[in-house]
Amino acid sequence: MSVKDINQNLLKPATKRLLLKSVTKFYDPLGLFAPTKVVGKILFQDTWLSGVQWDEILPPNIAKQWNKWISELSSLNDIGKLRWIELSPSSDYSLHIFCDSSERAFGVVLYIRYLEGKTTKAQLLCSCNRLSPLKRITLPRLELMACLIGARLLNYICTNTSQCSNTVD
């Protein structure tokens, strides 16, 4: 992900096309920055619902939120990304999945908890989120949708890794 490229968009008038371009440039396959990206997705959904045309200037309230979101993206460069976790087949580790939803979005985060020496460590493995459908759905149903993507994410991780935890919480 290049935050520099996205920050260049602040110099241009805020349009629906530019907002979508900014959200799609944000490449994050592991979902490490999913909470940040979902804000952009929600802004685009709000723009879509407002009926703004592609090259029309965004309404002031959405443009203000978009400028704030773009400005906050520069702080993502300061975050260190740990990717390598060395585990032996005899390592004591477990996967922990957390699912949650709100009226606007739902998501899942997957952590690995492991022993390194005599200390216990936890590290974010991946996450994903989705926007809630435009048709209103009850919060319990959205919670179930979050659980479904949590189960799918766990299945994907266990299927595509050579080691899968015996303990999942």
TrEMBL record:
InterPro entries per the UniProt record, alphabetical: Retrotrans_Pao
One Pfam short name: Peptidase_A17
Protein name as it appears in the record: Reverse transcriptase/retrotransposon-derived protein RNase H-like domain-containing protein
Protein's organism: Araneus ventricosus (Orbweaver spider)
